Amino acid sequence: MNLLTVPVLLPMLGAALTLILGRRPRLQRLVSILVLVGVVAAAGTLALRAHADGVQTLWVGAWPQGYGIALVADRLSAIMLTVAGLVTLAVLVYSAGQEEDEVRKETPVSIFHPTFLLMCAGVSNAFLAGDLFNLFVGFEILLFASYVLLTMGGTKSRIRAGSIYVVVNLLSSMLFLIALANIYAAIGSVNLAQIAQRMPDLPDHTQAQLQFMLLLVFAIKAAVFPLSAWLPDSYPTAPAPVTAVFAGLLTKVGVYAILRTQTLIFPHRPLTEPLMWVALLTMIVGILGAIAQVEIKRLLSFTLVSHIGYMVLGIALATTDGIAATIYYTAHHITIQATLFLVAGLIQRVGHSNNLDRLSGLMTTSPLLAALFIVPGMNLAGIPPFSGFIGKLGLLNAATATGTPLSLALVVASVLTSLLTLYAIAKVWNRAFWGTPVAVAHVDDEEDEDDEGSGRLMPGVMVGATLALIAFSLTLTFVAGPAYDYTKQAAAALLDGAYVQAVLGEVRP
């Protein structure tokens, strides 16, 4: 049985069903959870098949190869799909812990569940897309859903932030369409495998133009500096479940697109030095922005930008070790960043604020909340022996092996960024969790608009979903050996032409 359509069609069908069940919130939640369990099962099976049997392909609609829509699952897309499914499932369970008044304000289920499932379908389609136009469609599906999720509740801060987000992404989508038109005009196809075959035959200046256009589009979506200014203003205003899945997943789809196109279409044009400079600036500017923040969500948003730089570094190296480390680190970061934003939502509930100037003594108020924060916080900073340390160590080893002055400078910048990330986490810990608990302070109108159930106890389902993501991140540490071997094989396959051979039906040597 070919499972390649399941991660896309199942959430779409679930979105339609939950829309019909708009007045039956419990059934909506049940349907949504069952759908995402099915997506995780299908993604896990595809990961095993891609590992055991090679690249999985499906030409939708029985069109001749090269003319129809191709869905493709190799090790890279399968592992991204599996991690994305696990994170979205945990976030959906977390959202089920919200009380009725909070649901009406933050994530009204009649809107939230269909839109959330539609976003999941778009993410799955982007990871499985075997041609650039289908990748564009995947981006548009997830972006359409994200516009609704980001502005849900209709508060002033969300509408303002949503306007920035919508404008930036409409611009990037327009650029994507222009890039698609140029690629089709130059090559006569938008199929990734066919583009990879024909691209080396084009003049150098045409290749450079097409590569720049695709990198520009995907860099905007991945929030790579200097195209990242929209992110810290957009994500913090959304409800905790929405922010968590945005931070964990949406920028990583952009990283995936950069990784896919660079290794498949432009392996002969790695642009190592320019991308290294981009990685360096993304790391440093992002983390400097983080340590200047007093709002926890904004601080985490800047660390998100900063750590995209690590992933760009691995892509820039264009070596098997560098790409393997990027794949592992991306899977780690999806999990950790989503976890920290879920914890930020719990801090809002217990401490009445996300502002460090209004928080103190949460360690005394809720020791469990302190534990939920410190474990992913240390993992984000790359403290041994967590998965963040393993991923960063792999990237540093790959950069050191390259041995150029710029790659060695990036090693220093990577270590500095980790230390400053630790400083940012320690800042939150010292100001929010240490000290004496304080009485509820006055909350200004804008923060009160976005207050997420402050003052109530942490529901067990919210804590359980957060613990599940923490447990998954720790699993990435405990099984680091096999997991890293998997990513190394994924990286090797990206560079050996197996994707093109599988999609176009050529006989593999």
Short recap of the structure:
By secondary structure, the chain is an all-alpha fold. It has helices at residues 6-20, 25-53, 75-95, 100-105, 109-128, 132-150, 156-187, 192-198, 204-222, 230-234, 240-264, 272-291, 296-317, 320-351, 362-365, 367-381, 387-402, 405-433, 445-449, 460-478, 480-495, 498-504, and strands at residues 56-60, 69-73.
Would you write up a description of this structure?
With 509 residues, the chain is mostly helical. The protein has one domain (6-504). Helices cover 75% and strands 2% of the residues. It has 22 helices and 2 strands. It has a two-stranded antiparallel ribbon. A hairpin with an 8-residue loop joins strand 1 (56-60) and strand 2 (69-73). Helix 6 runs antiparallel to helix 11 and helix 13 (296-317) packs parallel to helix 17. It is globular, with a radius of gyration of 22 Å. The two termini are 26 Å apart.
Q: What ranges have pLDDT less than 50 throughout 5 or more consecutive residues?
A: 440-450
Helix coverage percent: over 70%
Q: Which secondary-structure class do the elements indicate?
A: mainly alpha
Average predicted confidence as pLDDT: 88
Count every beta strand, where a strand is a DSSP E run of 2 or more residues. Answer: 2
Return the string of H and E elements.
HHEEHHHHHHHHHHHHHHHHHHHH
- Describe the global form: globular
Tally of separate domains? 1
Q: What is the CA-CA span between the terminal residues?
A: 26 Å
* Portion in beta strands: under 5%
